[in-house]
Amino acid sequence: MKAVTIHDSTPNDVLSFDLADLLRIAGPSVRESTWRCHAVEAIGPQADLLHAASDNGRSLSGDELIDIATEVTQIIDGDFVAERSNEGAPWLVIRAVDSTVYVVITNDHALIERIRAKFRDVRDSPEDAEAAW
Q: Can you give the pTM of this predicted structure?
């Protein structure tokens, strides 16, 4: 597994992207995955749906997560874990940390390269890769 942290922010020190952006970059595999959410703290029109999935341990389809993520104003904290039906382990973890950084942990090296191409401040994070599971 490989992990990177993304720190891109506006001049006002607000993240310049959100979960919905990362899901778009991850591509079609997002829709084909089942997602679990843990320890989510979010605000916005659909934040209650994320909180409920996190609190109740309910899985979300990729389409559900995309729809919800586009209707959330801000994700403050939370882990979003994706599994494909034919694999026994997660292929992607997206972690929001204190509204200041996102961590992306994946075995998809092409996704890491797309992230590096899209964002300015992407840092390797081997400690996150080791602690992912």
A: 0.95
